[in-house]
Design brief:
single chain; 268 residues; alpha+beta; Phosphorylase Kinase, domain 1; three-stranded antiparallel β-sheet; 10 helices; 42% helix
Amino acid sequence: MARWRLTPDGEPFETHSSWFCFVRRDHDRALLKAFKPGSDEAPSARYLAVHRGSGTVRVLESDAAAILVERVFPGTRLTRLPADGRDDAACHIICDTIEKLQSSAVEISGWPGHDQHLAAFQRYPISPLTPEIVARAESLFRELDASQSGRVLLHGDLHHENILFDEARGWLAIDPKGEIGEIAYELAAPLRNPLDDPDQFMSPSQMDRRVSIYCERLKLDRKRVLGWCFVRTASAALWYAGRTPEPKREKAWPAATLTALELLERER
């Protein structure tokens, strides 16, 4: 706070990976995010910096321990649209955001791939994900990863809670992970969200509608979009099952895994 000449402008809060505080520097509003030990959020500063505000919040300061970004105002999350019955509009905003992020000419060397997610498949299966489903998910994960083409720098966690509305700049992405892969991979996160209203994506008809919009807008292959949704949602469900209980994820992600698998079977 002292080094970056910041004054508090709200109560601090925290997530599992970071501490946050709304601040001001002179008359400008900003958000300070300090990374907890072992957090996977540190690469976000580098990702945001290379995009220079194209579809993202802008970086004001950063170092290995923290990042200061412009404050999004009013900061309405994209979760609001599905809750108001505007899920199709939310899908198109996600596509718009992906197109903005990909409009930047970004060097992809030095960024991780998807290998870090494979460790989740070594955990014990959880209900209703049987050992057979987990084994199938791991096998398909490896197959999709090996057969990717057109690899680009991806946000890596582009779901509804990570897209906020700013009255001056429109919809902006926050909290990137930064991974190299194909665009179809990027749709796994929004297909299993928002967690506050899992019925928006749990039914095969709703997920199918979302996939149709994404594939038409972004010219993607349905099998690869559904495949990535199946394997990434399975790995996320397994990973979070061994952490502090989070009822929303424990209910929604296994259900979304089975929904994606059902739609994937229809494509055969």
